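Appendix B. One record, verbatim.
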Amino acid sequence: MVNSSLAYEILLYINSFYFGLFATCELGTLILKSVLIIEKYNVGQDPTKLGRDYGVLFGLFVVEALRLLLGRKGSLSEKDIPVLFSVLLTIPSIMGVLYLLAFQVVVLRIECIWCTLMLCLQVLEFIFASMFIVTMCRGPSYD
C-alpha cells in the first residue's frame, strides 16, 4: 500500500522548487520573446495577444503559489479541506500551463519541455492528493 500523504508531500516539495525555476524561465522567455521575436511574427500591431500571455503567466503564478501553499499546509497538518482546495486549484493551474504549452503567440521547444514537466508534476500531485483526501475521509480502522 502506498502512503499517499508521504508521496503527495514529496511531490509538493519537488514542485515548490521546480515552480520557482519554471516561473523564472517562463518570465524570462516571455520578456525575450516580447523584445526580439514578436516583431518577426507581426504581433506589434495587436498588443492584446502579448498582454494576454503576460496575464495568463501572472495568473498562473498566483494560482500555483496558492495551490502549493494550501497543499503543503493541508498535508503537514493532515487536514483534508486545504488539500481539497489545492486539488480544485489544480484545474486552473493545468489550464494555464496548457495555454503556455499550446496557445501562446510563439511557443519555443524549451517551453514545451518545461510545460510538459510541469503538467506531469501537477497530474501526479492531483492523483496523490485525491488518494490523500480519500484516506482522510475514511473512518479510523481498529484492526
